[in-house]
Amino acid sequence: MSNSVGLELERKASPGNDMERGSPVAAPASGETEHGILAYLLLSSASSAIPMTNRMREGGDNIFTDSCAAAISMSLLAFISLACSSVIAGYKLSTQSFI
């Protein structure tokens, strides 16, 4: 094998060269999967905490139930902001030209 062919194979096999700028193949965004998992966890934790907090508030309204309600509202706010961020990222990805 000649030296130039060996160097070419080494360059192609090196990490980080498979997604050069202008490449026609698009890799999925690295954080999109994690964003989806985090959004699911935020929404499911809030939806499971709401009925229990309402049941506890029927017995009495104290500092614990108030803090639970605040945590639920912050979780829903975080989910909404994460959903908006994902929509914006998807829009930017769909309008990007790969050619």
TrEMBL record:
Membrane disposition: Multi-pass membrane protein
One GO cellular component term noted in the UniProt record for this chain: plasma membrane
Biased composition (Basic and acidic residues): 8-21
Subcellular location as annotated: Cell membrane
All copies of domain Casparian strip membrane protein, residue ranges: 37-80
Chief location of this protein within or outside the cell: membrane
Aminoacyl-tRNA synthetase in keyword set: no
Pfam family membership, one: CASP_dom
Cross-referenced InterPro entries: CASP_dom (IPR006702)
Assigned keywords, A-Z: Cell membrane, Membrane, Transmembrane, Transmembrane helix
First and last residue of the signal peptide: none
Assigned protein family: Belongs to the Casparian strip membrane proteins (CASP) family.
Family matches, as PANTHER family: CASP-LIKE PROTEIN 4A4, CASP-LIKE PROTEIN 4B1
Quaternary state and interactors: Homodimer and heterodimers.
Protein name as catalogued: CASP-like protein
Organism for this UniProt entry: Chenopodium quinoa
